[in-house]
Specification:
This protein is an alpha+beta fold and about 250 residues long. It has one domain (about 15-245). The chain has helices spanning about 60, 75-85, 90-95, 120-125, 130, 140-145, 215-230, and strands at about 15-20, 30-40, 40-45, 50-55, 95, 100, 110, 160-165, 170, 180, 185-190, 195, 210, 210-215, 235, 245. A five-stranded antiparallel beta sheet has the order 1-2-3-14-5. The longest helix has 15 residues, at about 215-230. The relative contact order is 0.21.
Length: about 250
């Protein structure tokens, strides 16, 4: 988490930003986000539900090179990029801030506008198993088709950033690249709220993506105020079951 002045009163609140299929393919509706952390004018948000179903990495590519287990080369990151351009309009994209994502172990870094939480962030923001449980949206359930891992459970298995398993000696991929810190495993929050990681999880195409973004909260308030005035569809927190934001 980034350090700085905190607005603890905002943490846990719900805001609406962007539009995406949720109840079903045809229901392109405002996306509810939970505020996880606030520092200065920036806020860390996560979707209330898991909105996409996807494997963490492309298995055909992974057969050739272990680098596709790294976040910057993963299929999950590609899906997050697609989500950014599908879910947000131009004004909304302007208030979303880039976030530095550091691969633990390799030390490599990339910047992303939509990303996954790290295990440390999950444990900080969701300190117990019950709070980590997340539902699949109706649209995401449609993507599961015949079901999949833990399909009988009402909750979703959702990806978080991968982590290296420390081993004695380097691991070498088929392309000859050496990884000095050991093998990199996909990690996920399972339906029971536990955090697990193992090699074979990379093959699970029915796990879900729960997008995260970092936004300028002051700029968001300007957008919502203008939208409220023009659209006349504003519901405040007191009289709306949806929290606050455009609905």
């Amino acid at each position: 988490m980034m350090a700085g002045p905190k607005r603890r009163d905002l943490i846990g609140e719900t805001i609406y930003l962007g539009r995406y299929p949720q109840a079903d393919k045809g229901d392109i509706s405002p996306i509810p986000w939970m505020i996880l952390d606030v520092w200065g004018e920036s806020g860390l948000l996560i979707t209330k539900e898991c909105l996409m179903v996807s494997a963490y990495c492309d298995m055909k590519k992974l057969e050739y090179d272990l680098k596709y287990l790294e976040w910057q080369n993963s299929l999950a990151r590609e899906r997050c990029k697609e989500f950014f351009y599908k879910a947000f309009n131009e004004k909304e994209r302007e208030i979303i801030q880039k976030r530095n994502i550091i691969n633990e172990g390799s030390g490599s870094m990339c910047q992303d506008l939509v990303f996954l939480l790290s295990e440390k962030e999950v444990k900080t923001c969701f300190p117990d198993k019950e709070s980590r449980k997340a539902l699949l949206s109706g649209y995401a359930k449609e993507q599961r088709c015949a079901g999949g891992y833990s399909s009988r459970d009402q909750y979703a298995d959702w990806w978080i950033l991968p982590q290296y398993e420390r081993r004695n000696g380097p691991v070498t991929s088929l392309s000859g690249i050496q990884y000095p810190y050991g093998f990199l495993y996909p990690k996920a929050v399972l339906t029971n709220g536990e955090i697990r990681f193992r090699e074979r999880m990379a093959y699970y195409k029915y796990f879900a993506i729960r997008p995260c973004i970092q936004i300028n909260l002051a700029a968001y308030q300007n957008i919502e105020a203008k939208s409220r005035k023009i659209a006349g569809r504003w519901r405040n927190q007191k009289n709306s079951p949806y929290g606050y934001g455009l609905v």
